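Give me the fold.
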Amino acid sequence: MLQPFYKTLARLALILPLLALAACGGESAPADAPQAFTAVAGDGRVTLTWNQDPNMTYWVFAAQADSVTPDNYNKFPESVLQRGVSSPFTLTGLTNGKTYSFTINATRNGSPAGPAAPSQAIVPRPAGTTWTPGAPLGSADLNKIGAGSSQYVAVGNAGSIYTVGTGSVGLWVKQNAKTTADLYAYLFNGTNHMAMGSAGTLIYSTDASTWTVVDTGAAAKAERFNALATGGNIYLAVGQGGAIYTGATDALTAPKPWVKQVSNTTANLNALIYNAQWKLENSVAIPRYVVVGDSGTILVGEVTTTTTGSTVSYSTTWTQKTSGTDANLYGVTYNSVLGSYFVVGSGGTLLMSTDTETWTKVALPTTQNLHAITIGSRVLAVGANGTTVLAAYTSSKGTDGKTVWSYAWSVGSAGAISKLNDVIAGDGSYLAVGASGTNTRSF
Protein backbone atom coordinates (compact mmCIF):
# COMPACT_ATOMS: atom_id res chain seq x y z
CA MET A 1 0.00 0.00 0.00
CA LEU A 2 2.89 2.38 0.67
CA GLN A 3 4.52 1.89 -2.74
CA PRO A 4 2.17 4.30 -4.66
CA PHE A 5 2.70 6.90 -1.90
CA TYR A 6 6.48 6.74 -2.24
CA LYS A 7 6.24 6.84 -6.03
CA THR A 8 4.12 10.01 -5.71
CA LEU A 9 6.73 11.58 -3.42
CA ALA A 10 9.50 10.71 -5.88
CA ARG A 11 7.59 12.31 -8.75
CA LEU A 12 6.88 15.42 -6.70
CA ALA A 13 10.58 15.72 -5.89
CA LEU A 14 11.27 15.92 -9.61
CA ILE A 15 8.35 18.15 -10.55
CA LEU A 16 8.63 20.72 -7.73
CA PRO A 17 11.81 22.29 -9.16
CA LEU A 18 9.89 22.95 -12.38
CA LEU A 19 7.04 24.55 -10.44
CA ALA A 20 9.49 26.64 -8.44
CA LEU A 21 11.15 27.80 -11.61
CA ALA A 22 7.82 28.79 -13.06
CA ALA A 23 7.07 30.91 -9.99
CA CYS A 24 10.38 32.73 -9.78
CA GLY A 25 11.50 35.84 -11.55
CA GLY A 26 14.71 36.45 -13.40
CA GLU A 27 15.26 34.90 -16.81
CA SER A 28 12.27 34.51 -19.05
CA ALA A 29 11.30 31.08 -20.36
CA PRO A 30 12.84 30.00 -23.68
CA ALA A 31 10.55 31.06 -26.50
CA ASP A 32 11.04 27.95 -28.60
CA ALA A 33 10.98 24.23 -28.02
CA PRO A 34 14.24 22.31 -28.50
CA GLN A 35 14.78 21.86 -32.23
CA ALA A 36 15.35 18.71 -34.30
CA PHE A 37 14.20 16.45 -31.46
CA THR A 38 14.32 12.81 -32.61
CA ALA A 39 13.98 9.42 -30.96
CA VAL A 40 15.67 6.33 -32.40
CA ALA A 41 14.65 2.90 -31.13
CA GLY A 42 17.26 0.39 -29.99
CA ASP A 43 17.38 -2.91 -28.18
CA GLY A 44 15.58 -2.18 -24.90
CA ARG A 45 16.56 1.47 -25.20
CA VAL A 46 16.08 4.73 -27.06
CA THR A 47 18.57 7.37 -28.17
CA LEU A 48 17.28 10.96 -28.13
CA THR A 49 18.99 13.77 -30.03
CA TRP A 50 18.32 17.49 -30.48
CA ASN A 51 20.12 20.72 -31.29
CA GLN A 52 21.72 21.55 -27.97
CA ASP A 53 22.27 25.08 -26.68
CA PRO A 54 24.98 25.16 -23.96
CA ASN A 55 23.03 27.88 -22.14
CA MET A 56 19.98 25.66 -21.68
CA THR A 57 19.11 22.97 -19.14
CA TYR A 58 17.12 20.19 -20.79
CA TRP A 59 14.32 18.09 -19.29
CA VAL A 60 13.23 14.79 -20.88
CA PHE A 61 9.79 13.31 -20.19
CA ALA A 62 9.04 9.68 -21.09
CA ALA A 63 6.41 6.99 -20.54
CA GLN A 64 4.92 3.88 -22.04
CA ALA A 65 2.26 5.67 -24.11
CA ASP A 66 1.34 6.70 -27.63
CA SER A 67 2.07 10.37 -26.86
CA VAL A 68 3.22 12.40 -23.85
CA THR A 69 3.51 16.00 -22.66
CA PRO A 70 5.31 17.44 -19.62
CA ASP A 71 1.89 17.71 -17.97
CA ASN A 72 0.60 14.17 -18.48
CA TYR A 73 3.64 11.88 -18.82
CA ASN A 74 3.36 10.76 -15.18
CA LYS A 75 -0.15 9.43 -15.73
CA PHE A 76 1.24 6.54 -17.82
CA PRO A 77 3.21 3.41 -16.93
CA GLU A 78 7.02 3.57 -16.66
CA SER A 79 7.02 7.36 -16.48
CA VAL A 80 10.46 8.97 -16.34
CA LEU A 81 11.68 12.54 -15.86
CA GLN A 82 15.36 13.26 -16.49
CA ARG A 83 16.84 16.70 -15.75
CA GLY A 84 20.08 18.19 -17.05
CA VAL A 85 20.57 15.76 -19.94
CA SER A 86 22.73 16.31 -23.00
CA SER A 87 22.34 15.26 -26.62
CA PRO A 88 22.65 12.42 -27.46
CA PHE A 89 20.86 10.91 -24.46
CA THR A 90 20.23 7.16 -24.15
CA LEU A 91 17.48 5.82 -21.92
CA THR A 92 17.73 2.09 -21.15
CA GLY A 93 15.52 -0.46 -19.41
CA LEU A 94 12.69 -0.31 -21.96
CA THR A 95 10.64 -3.37 -22.91
CA ASN A 96 11.04 -4.53 -26.49
CA GLY A 97 7.78 -4.54 -28.42
CA LYS A 98 6.09 -1.84 -26.28
CA THR A 99 5.33 1.71 -27.44
CA TYR A 100 7.12 4.53 -25.60
CA SER A 101 6.86 8.27 -26.15
CA PHE A 102 9.23 11.12 -25.36
CA THR A 103 9.27 14.89 -25.27
CA ILE A 104 11.70 17.54 -24.10
CA ASN A 105 11.70 21.14 -22.93
CA ALA A 106 14.32 23.51 -21.54
CA THR A 107 15.04 26.16 -18.93
CA ARG A 108 17.64 28.94 -19.02
CA ASN A 109 19.55 29.95 -15.89
CA GLY A 110 16.69 29.02 -13.56
CA SER A 111 13.91 30.34 -15.79
CA PRO A 112 10.48 28.78 -16.17
CA ALA A 113 10.32 25.92 -18.66
CA GLY A 114 9.79 26.74 -22.31
CA PRO A 115 7.51 24.89 -24.72
CA ALA A 116 8.03 21.20 -25.29
CA ALA A 117 9.05 19.56 -28.55
CA PRO A 118 6.47 17.42 -30.34
CA SER A 119 6.13 13.98 -28.75
CA GLN A 120 8.12 11.21 -30.44
CA ALA A 121 6.98 7.57 -30.26
CA ILE A 122 9.14 4.49 -30.80
CA VAL A 123 8.94 0.73 -30.29
CA PRO A 124 12.19 -0.81 -28.99
CA ARG A 125 13.17 -4.06 -30.75
CA PRO A 126 15.90 -6.67 -30.39
CA ALA A 127 19.22 -6.04 -32.13
CA GLY A 128 20.80 -8.54 -34.50
CA THR A 129 18.65 -8.20 -37.60
CA THR A 130 19.96 -5.06 -39.34
CA TRP A 131 23.71 -4.40 -39.52
CA THR A 132 25.72 -1.27 -40.26
CA PRO A 133 29.29 -1.83 -41.47
CA GLY A 134 32.13 0.42 -40.36
CA ALA A 135 35.08 1.47 -42.48
CA PRO A 136 37.62 -1.39 -42.70
CA LEU A 137 40.19 -1.37 -39.89
CA GLY A 138 43.22 -1.94 -42.07
CA SER A 139 43.53 -4.97 -44.34
CA ALA A 140 44.51 -7.67 -41.85
CA ASP A 141 41.98 -10.15 -40.50
CA LEU A 142 40.51 -9.28 -37.10
CA ASN A 143 40.19 -12.48 -35.09
CA LYS A 144 38.82 -11.57 -31.68
CA ILE A 145 36.86 -8.81 -29.99
CA GLY A 146 36.37 -8.19 -26.27
CA ALA A 147 35.54 -5.44 -23.82
CA GLY A 148 37.19 -3.90 -20.78
CA SER A 149 37.67 -0.53 -19.05
CA SER A 150 34.88 1.07 -21.12
CA GLN A 151 36.46 0.02 -24.42
CA TYR A 152 35.96 -2.56 -27.11
CA VAL A 153 39.26 -4.10 -28.22
CA ALA A 154 39.70 -5.96 -31.52
CA VAL A 155 42.90 -7.94 -32.22
CA GLY A 156 44.07 -9.64 -35.38
CA ASN A 157 46.81 -10.62 -37.76
CA ALA A 158 50.15 -8.82 -38.04
CA GLY A 159 49.79 -7.35 -34.54
CA SER A 160 46.57 -5.49 -35.37
CA ILE A 161 44.87 -3.86 -32.38
CA TYR A 162 42.02 -1.37 -32.59
CA THR A 163 40.00 0.20 -29.78
CA VAL A 164 36.77 2.15 -29.52
CA GLY A 165 34.90 3.47 -26.52
CA THR A 166 31.83 1.52 -25.52
CA GLY A 167 28.78 3.30 -26.82
CA SER A 168 30.76 4.88 -29.67
CA VAL A 169 30.12 4.21 -33.34
CA GLY A 170 32.94 4.17 -35.88
CA LEU A 171 35.54 5.93 -33.72
CA TRP A 172 38.14 3.16 -33.80
CA VAL A 173 41.77 3.96 -32.95
CA LYS A 174 44.70 1.89 -34.18
CA GLN A 175 47.11 0.93 -31.37
CA ASN A 176 50.77 -0.14 -31.40
CA ALA A 177 50.92 -3.77 -30.25
CA LYS A 178 54.73 -3.81 -30.11
CA THR A 179 54.59 -7.07 -32.10
CA THR A 180 53.87 -8.23 -35.63
CA ALA A 181 52.61 -11.63 -34.50
CA ASP A 182 49.13 -12.76 -35.48
CA LEU A 183 46.84 -12.26 -32.47
CA TYR A 184 43.97 -14.70 -31.99
CA ALA A 185 43.04 -14.35 -28.30
CA TYR A 186 41.96 -11.47 -26.09
CA LEU A 187 41.15 -11.24 -22.40
CA PHE A 188 40.42 -8.43 -19.95
CA ASN A 189 41.21 -9.65 -16.44
CA GLY A 190 39.62 -6.73 -14.62
CA THR A 191 42.85 -4.71 -14.62
CA ASN A 192 44.81 -5.56 -17.75
CA HIS A 193 44.01 -6.14 -21.39
CA MET A 194 45.81 -9.26 -22.69
CA ALA A 195 46.29 -10.73 -26.16
CA MET A 196 47.98 -13.94 -27.33
CA GLY A 197 48.73 -15.50 -30.69
CA SER A 198 51.38 -17.03 -32.91
CA ALA A 199 54.85 -17.95 -31.65
CA GLY A 200 53.57 -17.94 -28.06
CA THR A 201 53.15 -14.17 -28.16
CA LEU A 202 51.67 -12.53 -25.07
CA ILE A 203 51.16 -8.79 -24.73
CA TYR A 204 49.31 -6.74 -22.13
CA SER A 205 48.21 -3.18 -21.42
CA THR A 206 46.52 -1.36 -18.58
CA ASP A 207 44.73 1.02 -20.95
CA ALA A 208 44.63 -0.88 -24.29
CA SER A 209 46.87 1.84 -25.72
CA THR A 210 50.39 1.21 -24.42
CA TRP A 211 51.30 -2.47 -24.79
CA THR A 212 54.12 -4.56 -23.31
CA VAL A 213 55.47 -7.86 -24.66
CA VAL A 214 55.84 -10.66 -22.09
CA ASP A 215 58.14 -13.69 -22.37
CA THR A 216 56.08 -16.92 -22.11
CA GLY A 217 59.08 -19.28 -22.19
CA ALA A 218 60.77 -21.45 -24.80
CA ALA A 219 58.10 -24.16 -24.95
CA ALA A 220 55.20 -21.75 -25.33
CA LYS A 221 57.01 -19.84 -28.08
CA ALA A 222 56.60 -22.90 -30.30
CA GLU A 223 52.81 -22.68 -30.06
CA ARG A 224 50.00 -20.74 -31.67
CA PHE A 225 47.42 -19.81 -29.06
CA ASN A 226 43.81 -19.36 -30.16
CA ALA A 227 42.03 -18.54 -26.91
CA LEU A 228 42.78 -17.27 -23.41
CA ALA A 229 40.82 -17.25 -20.14
CA THR A 230 41.46 -16.91 -16.43
CA GLY A 231 40.01 -18.58 -13.36
CA GLY A 232 40.99 -20.96 -10.58
CA ASN A 233 44.10 -18.85 -9.81
CA ILE A 234 45.64 -19.41 -13.25
CA TYR A 235 45.63 -18.15 -16.81
CA LEU A 236 44.81 -20.81 -19.38
CA ALA A 237 45.64 -20.67 -23.09
CA VAL A 238 44.71 -23.23 -25.75
CA GLY A 239 45.89 -23.60 -29.32
CA GLN A 240 46.93 -25.72 -32.27
CA GLY A 241 47.66 -29.43 -31.96
CA GLY A 242 45.95 -29.85 -28.58
CA ALA A 243 48.16 -27.29 -26.84
CA ILE A 244 47.03 -26.26 -23.36
CA TYR A 245 49.28 -24.05 -21.23
CA THR A 246 48.83 -22.43 -17.83
CA GLY A 247 50.35 -19.20 -16.61
CA ALA A 248 50.67 -17.92 -13.06
CA THR A 249 48.46 -15.06 -11.90
CA ASP A 250 51.57 -12.86 -11.74
CA ALA A 251 52.54 -13.83 -15.30
CA LEU A 252 52.47 -10.18 -16.36
CA THR A 253 54.40 -8.57 -13.52
CA ALA A 254 56.82 -11.45 -12.81
CA PRO A 255 57.09 -13.36 -16.10
CA LYS A 256 57.99 -17.02 -15.91
CA PRO A 257 57.61 -19.87 -18.41
CA TRP A 258 54.07 -21.01 -19.07
CA VAL A 259 53.52 -24.68 -18.23
CA LYS A 260 52.26 -27.20 -20.78
CA GLN A 261 49.36 -29.37 -19.60
CA VAL A 262 48.35 -32.85 -20.70
CA SER A 263 45.30 -32.48 -22.96
CA ASN A 264 45.22 -36.04 -24.37
CA THR A 265 44.31 -34.72 -27.81
CA THR A 266 46.12 -33.48 -30.90
CA ALA A 267 43.08 -31.64 -32.25
CA ASN A 268 43.36 -27.91 -32.76
CA LEU A 269 41.71 -26.18 -29.81
CA ASN A 270 39.86 -23.06 -30.90
CA ALA A 271 37.90 -21.54 -28.02
CA LEU A 272 37.33 -21.84 -24.29
CA ILE A 273 35.27 -20.48 -21.45
CA TYR A 274 35.68 -20.49 -17.68
CA ASN A 275 32.67 -21.04 -15.45
CA ALA A 276 33.40 -20.30 -11.81
CA GLN A 277 30.06 -21.58 -10.51
CA TRP A 278 29.56 -24.58 -12.71
CA LYS A 279 29.43 -27.74 -10.57
CA LEU A 280 28.35 -27.90 -6.94
CA GLU A 281 29.73 -30.62 -4.68
CA ASN A 282 28.63 -30.47 -1.05
CA SER A 283 27.43 -26.90 -1.69
CA VAL A 284 30.92 -25.88 -2.88
CA ALA A 285 31.33 -24.53 -6.40
CA ILE A 286 33.84 -26.51 -8.48
CA PRO A 287 35.11 -24.24 -11.29
CA ARG A 288 35.45 -25.65 -14.78
CA TYR A 289 36.99 -24.75 -18.09
CA VAL A 290 35.24 -25.89 -21.26
CA VAL A 291 37.40 -26.07 -24.39
CA VAL A 292 36.20 -26.80 -27.94
CA GLY A 293 38.18 -27.71 -31.04
CA ASP A 294 38.43 -29.54 -34.33
CA SER A 295 36.79 -32.91 -35.04
CA GLY A 296 34.04 -32.36 -32.48
CA THR A 297 36.47 -32.03 -29.57
CA ILE A 298 35.02 -30.88 -26.26
CA LEU A 299 37.25 -30.95 -23.18
CA VAL A 300 36.21 -30.16 -19.62
CA GLY A 301 39.00 -29.22 -17.24
CA GLU A 302 39.22 -28.73 -13.51
CA VAL A 303 42.01 -26.97 -11.62
CA THR A 304 43.92 -28.85 -8.92
CA THR A 305 45.85 -26.99 -6.21
CA THR A 306 48.96 -28.58 -4.68
CA THR A 307 50.73 -27.13 -1.65
CA THR A 308 54.29 -28.21 -0.82
CA GLY A 309 55.59 -26.31 2.17
CA SER A 310 55.13 -22.65 1.27
CA THR A 311 54.91 -23.37 -2.47
CA VAL A 312 51.50 -23.51 -4.12
CA SER A 313 51.19 -24.94 -7.63
CA TYR A 314 48.26 -25.47 -9.94
CA SER A 315 47.55 -28.11 -12.57
CA THR A 316 44.60 -29.07 -14.73
CA THR A 317 42.87 -32.37 -15.39
CA TRP A 318 40.99 -32.80 -18.66
CA THR A 319 38.12 -35.07 -19.65
CA GLN A 320 36.96 -35.45 -23.24
CA LYS A 321 33.20 -35.37 -23.71
CA THR A 322 31.13 -36.97 -26.45
CA SER A 323 29.88 -34.14 -28.64
CA GLY A 324 28.01 -36.29 -31.14
CA THR A 325 29.63 -34.53 -34.09
CA ASP A 326 32.89 -34.56 -36.05
CA ALA A 327 32.49 -30.92 -37.08
CA ASN A 328 35.24 -28.45 -36.22
CA LEU A 329 34.03 -26.43 -33.25
CA TYR A 330 35.04 -22.76 -33.19
CA GLY A 331 33.06 -20.93 -30.49
CA VAL A 332 31.60 -21.50 -27.04
CA THR A 333 29.65 -19.42 -24.52
CA TYR A 334 27.64 -19.96 -21.36
CA ASN A 335 24.68 -18.06 -19.94
CA SER A 336 23.77 -18.48 -16.29
CA VAL A 337 20.18 -17.28 -16.75
CA LEU A 338 19.53 -19.79 -19.53
CA GLY A 339 21.62 -22.38 -17.70
CA SER A 340 23.17 -23.64 -20.92
CA TYR A 341 26.39 -23.88 -22.88
CA PHE A 342 26.23 -23.06 -26.59
CA VAL A 343 28.86 -24.29 -29.08
CA VAL A 344 29.10 -23.48 -32.80
CA GLY A 345 31.22 -24.87 -35.60
CA SER A 346 31.61 -25.88 -39.23
CA GLY A 347 28.70 -26.78 -41.49
CA GLY A 348 26.16 -24.83 -39.45
CA THR A 349 26.81 -26.87 -36.30
CA LEU A 350 25.14 -25.70 -33.09
CA LEU A 351 25.31 -27.74 -29.88
CA MET A 352 23.68 -27.09 -26.50
CA SER A 353 24.22 -28.60 -23.07
CA THR A 354 23.08 -27.85 -19.53
CA ASP A 355 25.69 -30.08 -17.87
CA THR A 356 28.64 -30.49 -20.32
CA GLU A 357 27.90 -34.23 -20.29
CA THR A 358 25.06 -34.48 -22.78
CA TRP A 359 25.16 -32.36 -25.92
CA THR A 360 22.17 -31.79 -28.20
CA LYS A 361 22.56 -30.77 -31.83
CA VAL A 362 20.20 -28.04 -33.01
CA ALA A 363 19.04 -28.38 -36.62
CA LEU A 364 19.65 -25.08 -38.42
CA PRO A 365 18.69 -24.10 -41.98
CA THR A 366 22.31 -23.30 -42.91
CA THR A 367 25.50 -25.17 -43.73
CA GLN A 368 27.74 -22.12 -43.39
CA ASN A 369 30.60 -22.32 -40.90
CA LEU A 370 29.76 -20.57 -37.63
CA HIS A 371 32.77 -19.08 -35.83
CA ALA A 372 31.49 -17.38 -32.66
CA ILE A 373 28.43 -17.05 -30.47
CA THR A 374 27.27 -14.54 -27.84
CA ILE A 375 24.12 -13.76 -25.88
CA GLY A 376 22.36 -10.42 -25.54
CA SER A 377 18.62 -9.96 -25.79
CA ARG A 378 18.86 -12.86 -28.23
CA VAL A 379 21.37 -15.63 -28.87
CA LEU A 380 23.52 -14.66 -31.86
CA ALA A 381 26.09 -16.66 -33.83
CA VAL A 382 28.15 -15.33 -36.75
CA GLY A 383 30.22 -17.00 -39.44
CA ALA A 384 31.18 -17.36 -43.08
CA ASN A 385 29.73 -15.16 -45.81
CA GLY A 386 28.18 -12.79 -43.29
CA THR A 387 25.89 -15.50 -41.91
CA THR A 388 24.05 -14.77 -38.68
CA VAL A 389 21.99 -17.19 -36.60
CA LEU A 390 19.53 -15.68 -34.12
CA ALA A 391 17.31 -17.13 -31.42
CA ALA A 392 14.72 -15.43 -29.27
CA TYR A 393 14.31 -17.26 -25.97
CA THR A 394 11.23 -17.60 -23.78
CA SER A 395 10.65 -19.38 -20.49
CA SER A 396 7.90 -21.59 -19.10
CA LYS A 397 7.46 -23.86 -16.11
CA GLY A 398 7.93 -27.59 -16.53
CA THR A 399 5.87 -30.23 -14.78
CA ASP A 400 8.49 -30.32 -12.04
CA GLY A 401 8.16 -26.58 -11.49
CA LYS A 402 11.58 -25.81 -12.97
CA THR A 403 12.13 -23.17 -15.64
CA VAL A 404 12.25 -24.50 -19.20
CA TRP A 405 13.71 -22.35 -21.97
CA SER A 406 12.54 -22.48 -25.58
CA TYR A 407 14.40 -21.08 -28.59
CA ALA A 408 13.14 -19.87 -31.96
CA TRP A 409 16.10 -20.10 -34.35
CA SER A 410 16.42 -18.20 -37.61
CA VAL A 411 19.19 -17.52 -40.12
CA GLY A 412 20.01 -14.03 -41.37
CA SER A 413 22.84 -12.01 -42.87
CA ALA A 414 25.12 -9.20 -41.76
CA GLY A 415 25.75 -8.31 -45.39
CA ALA A 416 28.28 -9.09 -48.11
CA ILE A 417 31.09 -10.14 -45.77
CA SER A 418 33.46 -13.02 -46.53
CA LYS A 419 33.93 -14.08 -42.92
CA LEU A 420 32.96 -12.95 -39.43
CA ASN A 421 35.37 -14.31 -36.82
CA ASP A 422 33.95 -13.05 -33.55
CA VAL A 423 31.05 -11.15 -32.00
CA ILE A 424 30.28 -9.48 -28.68
CA ALA A 425 27.05 -8.21 -27.11
CA GLY A 426 27.07 -4.84 -25.37
CA ASP A 427 25.42 -1.41 -25.20
CA GLY A 428 22.16 -2.87 -26.49
CA SER A 429 23.94 -3.97 -29.65
CA TYR A 430 26.12 -6.63 -31.24
CA LEU A 431 29.56 -5.84 -32.63
CA ALA A 432 31.29 -8.29 -34.98
CA VAL A 433 34.75 -8.38 -36.59
CA GLY A 434 36.24 -10.49 -39.34
CA ALA A 435 38.29 -10.80 -42.49
CA SER A 436 40.20 -7.85 -43.97
CA GLY A 437 39.44 -5.44 -41.15
CA THR A 438 35.71 -6.07 -41.20
CA ASN A 439 33.71 -4.49 -38.36
CA THR A 440 29.95 -4.25 -38.33
CA ARG A 441 27.34 -3.41 -35.71
CA SER A 442 23.67 -4.13 -35.10
CA PHE A 443 21.56 -1.97 -32.77
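DSSP finds one helix and 35 strands in the chain.
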